[in-house]
């Protein structure tokens, strides 16, 4: 999760988020190089009294500054499209979980099990135990197996919500009457926090998401205890 005064993105937990972090650094480096070049040229024009007329009117320069931006845009667009298709691809999910947004809590249903569903409410500040995080802890965490492909079906029963977990690279809109789907896979165990990322009413800030990723053996024990 994020920490105070953090400047970058959260540590990646899924292969998709690792690709997103790499693309972020790739695009940021291109922006940095362009900004440095433009700043250098502006500084040169303001501090140099001499003007090279051939440079100002040359066809070669106009050709370069037309073709070069097109090449830069292609170097940004190609990896972006690759990641976009990776995020939409679903390969034989091992588990399906349906998430429903409500005002103002989440409900989860494990569709591969006969009767495994529960609601997840935020724990009020007055009920928090030492070490728990304000506005982020819930009474029922969603437990999932790690290193397995999981399909999330996301919808809503009232207004627009958005189910988002930054460290997994997930953000899927919960729309009433529509079922959106996304895929998640964690490469390591742990607790991962998220929040509703769509303005959904007065208590929009009070519907956190907590994912507990555990080994498959622990998940089977948890699911057996919940049935």
Task: Give a brief outline of the structure.
This protein is of the alpha+beta class and 227 residues long. It has helices spanning 15-47, 53-57, 59-88, 216-226, and strands at 95-102, 105-110, 117-120, 142-145, 150-156, 161-165, 170-174, 180-184, 190-196, 208-214.
As for the CATH topology of the largest domain, it is Immunoglobulin-like
Order of helices and strands: HHHEEEEEEEEEEH
Helix content: 25-40%
CATH-defined architecture of the largest domain: Sandwich
Strand ordering within the main sheet: 3-2-1-5-8
* CATH level-4 homologous superfamily of the largest domain: Cupredoxins -  blue copper proteins
Q: Could you say which structural class the secondary elements and strand pairing correspond to?
A: alpha+beta
> Unreliable stretches, pLDDT < 50, 5 or more residues?
none
Q: How many distinct helices?
A: 4
- β-sheet strand percentage: 25-35%
3D shape:
elongated
Give me the count of strands.
10
Largest sheet descriptor: 5 strands, mixed
Description:
The protein has 227 residues and is of the alpha+beta class. It has two domains: 13-86, Helix Hairpins; 93-224, Immunoglobulin-like. Helices cover 35% and strands 26% of the residues. The protein is built from four helices and ten strands; from the N terminus they run αααββββββββββα. It has helices at residues 15-47, 53-57, 59-88, 216-226, and strands spanning 95-102, 105-110, 117-120, 142-145, 150-156, 161-165, 170-174, 180-184, 190-196, 208-214. The strands form two sheets. It has a five-stranded mixed sheet with strand order 3-2-1-5-8, with no helix packed on it. A five-stranded mixed sheet has the order 4-10-9-6-7. A hairpin with a 2-residue loop joins strand 1 and strand 2. Helix 1 (15-47) packs antiparallel against helix 3. The radius of gyration is 24 Å and the shape is elongated. The chain starts with 14 loop residues before the first helix and ends with a helix. The model has no long low-confidence stretch (mean pLDDT 90).
């Amino acid at each position: 999760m994020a920490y105070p005064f953090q400047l970058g993105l959260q540590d990646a937990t899924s292969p998709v988020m690792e690709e997103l972090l790499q693309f972020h650094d790739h695009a940021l480096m291109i922006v940095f190089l362009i900004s440095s070049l433009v700043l250098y040229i502006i500084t040169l024009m303001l501090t140099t009294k001499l003007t090279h007329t051939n440079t100002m009117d040359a066809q070669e320069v106009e050709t370069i500054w037309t073709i070069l931006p097109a090449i830069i845009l292609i170097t940004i667009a190609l990896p972006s499209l690759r990641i976009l298709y990776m995020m939409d691809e679903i390969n034989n999910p091992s588990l399906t979980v349906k998430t429903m947004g409500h005002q103002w809590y989440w409900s989860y249903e494990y569709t591969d099990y006969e009767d495994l569903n529960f609601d997840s409410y935020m724990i009020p500040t007055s009920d928090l135990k030492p070490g728990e995080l304000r506005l982020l802890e819930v009474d029922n965490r969603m437990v999932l197996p790690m290193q397995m492909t999981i399909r999330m079906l996301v919808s809503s029963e009232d207004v627009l919500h958005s189910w988002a977990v930054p460290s997994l690279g997930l953000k899927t809109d919960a729309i009433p009457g529509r079922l959106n789907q996304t895929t998640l896979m964690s490469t390591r165990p742990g607790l991962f926090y998220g929040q509703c990322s769509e303005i959904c009413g007065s208590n929009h800030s009070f519907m956190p998401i907590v994912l507990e990723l555990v080994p498959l053996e622990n998940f089977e024990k948890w699911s057996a205890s919940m049935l």
